[in-house]
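As promised in the previous annual report, we have extended the structural survey to additional targets. Below is the entry for Ribosomal RNA small subunit methyltransferase A.
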Amino acid sequence: ASPRLLGPAEIRDLAELLEVTPTKKLGQNFVHDANTVRRIVQTAGVRAGETVLEIGPGLGSLTLGLLEAGASVIAVEIDKRLAAQLPHTAGIMQPGKPLTVVTQDALRVTELPGEPVRLVANLPYNISVPVLLHLLEHFDSLQSGIVMVQSEVGHRLAAGPGSKVYGAPSVKAAWYGNWRTAGQVSRMVFWPVPNVDSVLVGFERADVPGTESERVATFALVDAAFQQRRKMLRQSLSSVLGGTSATATAVLEAAGVDPQERGEQLTVADFLRIARAAAAADA
Ligand code: SAM
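The corresponding structure token record, generated without further manual editing, is:
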């Protein structure tokens, strides 16, 4: 039988046909292992008939796996040559399956031709966090997802307060739901082989804890707190809470947060309480 997913030979042939020289700038590392693809699709719990959003389909490794599982795929790819080839590859290897390719920068997508319920992607590594936050902000229909990211970033996304790797991405991600790591992936399944390890990260959306303007205010506090993560909150937040450590202390106390704590101890709910106390103090 002819292959239905991309292995090393198919990746090589496609790259040759398209004269693709993978670029670091676009994080182009292509998966050439069918087992890895099926594992990602299975971990994501993709069900036949549902609409899946894929960012950065590349040569189509994961796309074909999603189509094989019976999903309708909306694939957003910035590289024009790759985007143009994808329907042909899918037409040969998964004929008749529902695929829509959007040729665009994922960071700029605000509308999609459909309502995806799941995100499944092997993300371009240099922009994985901004892409995730952008998609969660703009597409309420996304209820869950599995993404492959650089190991370090994945552990950061899934970290909770008190962890060494807990940082601004962890708090911002937690605004939208619950995150977990879902298994390592060897760098050997990629061509070219990247110099970092990868991890699968899953999320389940939860109701957002505040309004859009509260989110913006909360994220500004998070950025300020983690820009100076070793400083106490009354110092790290002074510039965004009235200008002095005394004004910051008053807001923090009104929010029920110890001014001597550091950002790495706070949950997203704590940051939101500070944002609300600051708004109340301004009013
Ligand atoms: N999904 C494929 C796979 O698993 O083999 C390729 C994954 S590769 C790590 C990342 C892909 O994202 C590349 O195809 C790259 O061209 C694309 N990409 C990079 N930046 C992008 C952006 N801003 N918007 C959409 N796609 C992007």
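The chain has eleven helices and nine strands. Residues 26-31, 55-59, 61-62, 76-79, 82, 105-107, 122, 124, 127 surround S-adenosylmethionine (CB under 6 Å). These points will be discussed at the next consortium meeting with the crystallography subgroup.
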